[in-house]
Inverse folding.
């Protein structure tokens, strides 16, 4: 049972009486850096803030273009706006759902300064190909690796293939807190230093665990994006189970694939794309088990009626979101992203899911398409 360890760590927070930006956060940053191989891990209050702060720390200037995938959670692009930049959308690889390198090269404009791929669902984007384009075009590469805990490519953890990346610890993530929390990963000491200042109102010097730091000088206008110590304590406890949880997710994903292969109406099952530079290191961590399905929305209704929860990723691609209407995109601009938005569906996947529950989900899907559960 994990709860006794969580309770022990949380009790330490109450005993110390420092509930935000304290010693638990400092300890958690060291543990996270060791886990990912990052030189620096900086805890903040959400994955969205992590993206915004990373872009600011890497030098994004107002109005500069940031190339982002047209298919992702809205924060991938909204963080660009919050950091002062302008999203420039790129279509996706239909297998990995990540930014396509060929599409990236054709999308670069005179205003482009950054490229921000997102790693979605169970594997990373092709970072070698994207990095090559970024290098040729003089772009700074940063990663929306919010879903990427445990994912590696060519032996390097997600978020460490450019200037930096981020992690989200939203409760549903592979490593989730009991509320919002996030982190920036980077090997660049200057980037790490700027983010440490920005997260705490722009204050200079070390501030973690230091009550007197509220009186230190403010170098730049910053934000209140400090991580809560209770979340750090919870994450520290749950980190001890991360490898086991990842393994369990892989087992459940394999069970889904075995049961759903060949079911009429299921047009795509998850596939791990091998990377020739991986040197035997797996890139797959099943945060989400995503299928593509005919008549998806009616399938959702059918599964809901059978007591099966699902999630549509993402019903509106980013270029068609109302908040980006001023960018002037219309339907048809990014066809692969639009196709995924119309067909993709995530099935239940979490470490406590039981094999018989996987069977129930698969039986309900088969029943929808064939009229028979088996």
């Amino acid at each position: 049972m994990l709860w006794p360890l969580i309770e022990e760590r949380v009790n330490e927070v109450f005993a110390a009486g420092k509930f935000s930006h304290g010693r638990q956060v400092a300890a958690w940053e060291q543990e996270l850096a060791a886990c990912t191989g990052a030189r620096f891990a900086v805890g903040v209050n959400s994955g969205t803030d992590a993206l915004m702060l990373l872009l600011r720390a890497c030098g994004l200037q107002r109005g500069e273009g940031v190339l982002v995938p047209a298919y992702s959670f809205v924060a991938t692009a909204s963080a660009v706006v919050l950091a002062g930049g302008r999203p420039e959308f790129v279509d996706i690889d239909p297998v990995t759902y990540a930014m396509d390198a060929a599409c990236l090269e054709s999308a670069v404009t005179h205003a482009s300064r950054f490229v921000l791929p997102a790693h979605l669902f169970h594997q990373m984007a092709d970072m070698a190909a994207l990095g090559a384009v970024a290098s040729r075009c003089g772009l700074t590469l940063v990663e929306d690796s919010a879903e990427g805990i445990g994912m590696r490519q060519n032996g390097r953890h997600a978020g460490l293939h450019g200037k930096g990346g981020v992690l989200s610890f939203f409760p549903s993530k592979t490593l989730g807190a009991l509320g919002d929390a996030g982190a920036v990963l980077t090997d660049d000491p200057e980037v790490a230093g700027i983010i440490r200042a920005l997260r705490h109102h722009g204050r200079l010097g070390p501030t973690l665990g230091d009550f007197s730091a509220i009186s230190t000088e403010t170098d730049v206008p910053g934000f209140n994006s400090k991580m809560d110590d209770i979340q750090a304590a919870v994450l520290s406890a749950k980190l001890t189970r991360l490898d086991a949880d990842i393994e369990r997710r892989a087992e459940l994903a394999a069970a889904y694939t075995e049961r759903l292969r060949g079911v009429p109406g299921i047009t795509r099952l998850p596939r791990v794309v091998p990377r020739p530079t991986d040197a035997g290191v797996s890139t797959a961590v099943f945060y989400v088990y995503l299928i593509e399905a005919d008549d998806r929305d009616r399938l959702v209704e059918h599964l809901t009626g059978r007591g099966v929860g699902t999630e549509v990723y993402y019903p509106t691609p980013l270029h068609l979101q109302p908040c980006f209407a001023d960018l002037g995109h219309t339907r048809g601009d990014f066809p692969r992203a639009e196709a995924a938005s119309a067909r993709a569906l995530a099935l239940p996947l979490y470490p406590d899911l039981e094999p018989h529950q996987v069977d129930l989900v698969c039986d309900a899907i088969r029943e929808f398409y064939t009229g028979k559960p088996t």
The CA atoms of residues 72 and 252 lie 24 Å apart. The chain has a mean pLDDT of 92.
